[in-house]
Amino acid sequence: MADNAQFFAGLDIGGTTVKTVLVDEMGEVAGEMVEVRSHVKEGYESTFCQLEKALDQLTGNIGVGRKSVKGIGMDVPAPSCDGVIWGQANLAGDWVGTNVRDLFSERLGGVPVYMTNDGNAAALGEYAVRKKHHGALLLVAPGTGLGGGLVLPGGRAYEGASGLALEVGHISVPHREENDELPDCSCGLKGCLEAWVSLVALRRRVGIELSKPENASHPLNDGSPLDEKAFRLRDFAQEGDALAISIFRQQGQILGYGIADLVRVFDPGLVVIGGGLAETDFRDQYMEWVLEGFRERAWPMYLSSPVDPEHSTTRFEWARGGDWPAALGVAYSAREMFRH
To answer: Structural domain boundaries of the chain?
Structure first.
């Protein structure tokens, strides 16, 4: 390997693990990806130790020293601006108000570091794996919450003036519970899209449905904790269970309805749906439910071109990056920013 070879690292810091990857000057993955424990709840210094451990493993796997890493991309599971963490989320308290980007750069002897949040990083990763796509890309990813990100043509994430843009889960949707109430959202507001489309929302929905007399004999009414029932719901849907299907249908349709407003604002052309549902056996059916909701809310011009009706102006795809899109996304961003 050439002595002057340049590599760029992507460090995806999660609540439990850090997923890491190296790419070379050509943007190709170098060596094996490495995963280590994150230690985020023990403080940022403890996490820095884990990041260095991962960097040593990444470079050791391809037989180069850490000095060959010319730039680092890092994402954090919390709102941040210009390297400074703004909210605690699942982190220890010492992260908040700290410029972890600059501190980590100093710790590594001045290696430049790019930092963003995990939603932006995942969107960047989905953009990077689509090598023939050069337009914009909007990622919406149902998980514990509802994350997302927007990548502009050319591959730069839109982060907003304070790094707080694209909180896609917290737009309002005009859907109400059967008692005409707006559901509570984890952000403290009511009626957010995330309150309908997330694992947290599934827990609430499962509880409501299983409390109905007509579902008293459903196999999920077995005395297990509500969290466990919500996790098992996907398996029931894959087996064609009517109750599970109805819950996911509602979720998909409301997600598509909300995406229509995001498309009306950003007109990305490509919408990518991420999260665990991308791996399910019923994902094609779920995507159709998303499209049903989207068609209900979207203006005709966001469905097809008035000039060429055969041309779809908004395409939908499932995520392709698997478990590693965020690490890949920030690695590619570091390469674009720091390559010389």
So the answer is: 7-130+323-338, 137-318
Give this prediction's pTM.
Answer: 0.90
pLDDT tens for 194-248 read 999 998 899 999 999 999 999 999 999 998 898 899 889 999 999 999 999 999 9
Q: Do the two domains 7-130+323-338 and 137-318 of this chain adopt the same fold? A: yes
CB atoms within 10 A of CB 33: 19
| CATH code matching the domain that covers 7-130+323-338, chosen among 3.30.420.40, 1.20.1250.20, 3.40.50.150, 3.40.605.10 | 3.30.420.40
With respect to CATH, is domain 137-318 assigned 2.120.10.30? no
Which of 25, 139, 44, 2 has its CA nearest to residue 11? 44
- CA nearest neighbour of 49 among 61, 58, 59, 39: 39
Q: Are strands 156-157 and 146-152 parallel, antiparallel or unpaired?
A: antiparallel
Question: What's the one-letter identity of residue 168?
Answer: V
pLDDT in tens, 33-79: 999 999 999 999 999 999 999 999 999 999 999 999 999 999 998 88
In terms of residues, how long is the chain? Answer: 340
Q: What is the distance between the terminal CA atoms of the chain, rounded to a whole angstrom?
A: 18
Cα torsion 257, 201, 77, 45 to 10°: value is: 180
